[in-house]
Each structure stands twice: as C-alpha cells, then as structure tokens.
Amino acid sequence: MCELVPFARVRAILEKHNIRLRKSLGQNFLMDGNIVRKIMAAGRLLPEDVVVEIGPGAGTLTAALAGVCAHVVAVELDKRLLPVLEEVLDGLKNITVVPGDALKVDFDRLVAGITGAKTYKVVANLPYYITTPLVMRLLRGGSGVTQLVLMVQLEVAARMVAGPGSRDYGAFTVVVQYYSRPEVLFRVPRTVFFPQPEVDSAVVRLTKRRKPEVVVDNEDLFFALVRGAFGQRRKTVANALAGAKIVPGWTRATWEEILGRAGIDPRCRGETLSLLEFASLARVIQQRLMESGISG
C-alpha cells in the first residue's frame, strides 16, 4: 500500500536538523501527494520489484515506494540528509540508504550485493544537473535496469521523445531511443516543489529495450557518428562528419561517397537523420573499413 509521509512532518524534520537546501545540488523536494501517487502508478511496480531511487532527498517518495515493492535502494549524495532520512523512514525495514555519487555507483553490483536481484527499476526525482549524464550511464551501462520513471525538466523530456528534424532532436535523443521506448506521461508544475524551481518538470517512463531499436555491429562507431553529426548543427552532414575526424584521412569527398552509398543526401543536416539512417551509415563505414583492411 502506498502511504505518504505528511509533508508538514518532513519540513519539521528538515528544520530540526537545520537543513538548508542547496541549489547547487538541485535540491527541490516534491511536496504534493497527488504527484507522488501518479509517479507510483507510472512505475507499474510489483510486490517482487527492487527499486533504485536516486536522490531520495527527505524520503517522501522513498517511503511510498517501500509500501509497494520488495526493496528500495536509495542513493543520496548529500550526507547532511542521512539523519533526516533515518528519522523519516524509521520503521521501514525494506529500505537501504546508501551514501554516494550516482554518477559513480555501479548500480548492478550495488543492487545484487544488497538484495541479490539481477534486475531492478529506477524511480527518481532527478537533480536537474545530473539528468543527461546519469540517463546516458544507466541506459548504456546498467544491464540490470528494466525501466526508468524519472522526474526531469520539461525541456529534457521533450528531447527524449523528439523526432528527426525537430528543434529538440539531438545526440541525447538518439541514445535514449536506441536503448529504450520513452514516453512523456504528465507535466508537473514548479509550484509543487520546495523550494520552487525556475522551470516546470515532466515525468517520463523509459522502458528498456531487450534489443536496441536498430541493428548495429559497432556501437562505438555508431555513437561517434551521432556525436559528429550533431557536433556542428549548421553544417551539412558531410562537412560535420569530415570535421569530426571519425576516420583519420577521410575528406569531405570521401564522406560524400560514403553517405551516397548509405542512401543519404550529403547536403542534409545531421539532425534530420533517423536512427535507421545512422545505423545504415555505420554499416557502410564498417564495410568500407574492412575493404581497406582497417579494423573499425
């Protein structure tokens, strides 16, 4: 059962421990029970699920998660909040609070060491400043992650679900859609946070794909192409890739030939290419490198 810690109690405990929230750590605590319930519903949690929460803050969402799943592993960077969490979560036996930096933690190993589980879901109100690197790290490196339900800035949510050619489409979009099926579930106004941030948020659900969206033999090459194509958005894709020096010695003329073989107009912009087109281009490059006796 999802039970909410009264927000008045949370604020009283923060005051008791003389905690002043730090803007540098993106500390904006959710103080709206309806939003907490909607996040819980978005998680589609089962009694046997293990959940990782990143940045539990004062423990409001943490306590709710513990009421519906097998175990919550909460990773908190700010050690000042540890006694707050201990008091707020007192009596809940299926929560393990771990002090640490989420950008450095090996979540697969952490979860296995605490619970023995090989798979887990992530539910979090993410600090804005770590959203992009953390999502990239979880999707690319967290083999045990099956689903992420995240509160993120509204503009970040838009980037996750953007289509080719749109203003929000970028390298981050390609990574997210390569590894997962992203959905923007609902908008969250800035007024439900304490202290109030300067922007609105959204809750997104990323369902990890069992296999990537497109077939790629060399992921390093694929993502190098993506970075190169988006590195200079105002340039044609041929010029951008030539400037990125992905393959030493390849000139603009070489890239025009390669793009033509992949069925891509060299004069288009990189931000118009779909995942399928990036994958096709990667395969053509890999083939060309093998023909030249160069390992990709």
Describe this entry's structure for a reader:
The protein has 296 residues and is an alpha/beta fold. It has a seven-stranded mixed beta sheet with strand order 4-3-2-5-6-9-7, sandwiched between helices. Strands 1-8 form a two-stranded antiparallel ribbon. Helix 6 runs parallel beside helix 8 and helix 9 packs across helix 10. The mean pLDDT is 90.
Properties at a glance:
296 residues, alpha/beta, Rossmann fold, Helicase, Ruva Protein, domain 3, 2 domains, seven-stranded mixed β-sheet, 12 helices, 18% strand, elongated
What structural class results from the helix and strand content?
A: alpha/beta
Tell me about the largest β-sheet.
Answer: 7 strands, mixed
State the helical fraction. 40-55%
Give the name of the CATH superfamily of the largest domain: Vaccinia Virus protein VP39
Our Rg estimate from Cα atoms comes to 22 Å
Level-1 CATH class name of the largest domain:
Alpha Beta
Low-confidence stretches: none
Query: Helical segment tally?
Result: 12
**Distance linking N and C termini:** 52 Å
Number of domains: 2
Instruction: Give the percentage of residues in beta strands.
Output: 15-25%
How are the strands ordered across the major sheet? 4-3-2-5-6-9-7
Named at the architecture level, the CATH assignment of the largest domain is 3-Layer(aba) Sandwich
The coarse overall form would be elongated
Task: Give the rounded overall mean pLDDT.
Answer: 90
Number of strands: 9
String of helices and strands:
HEHEHEHEHEHEHHEEEHHHH
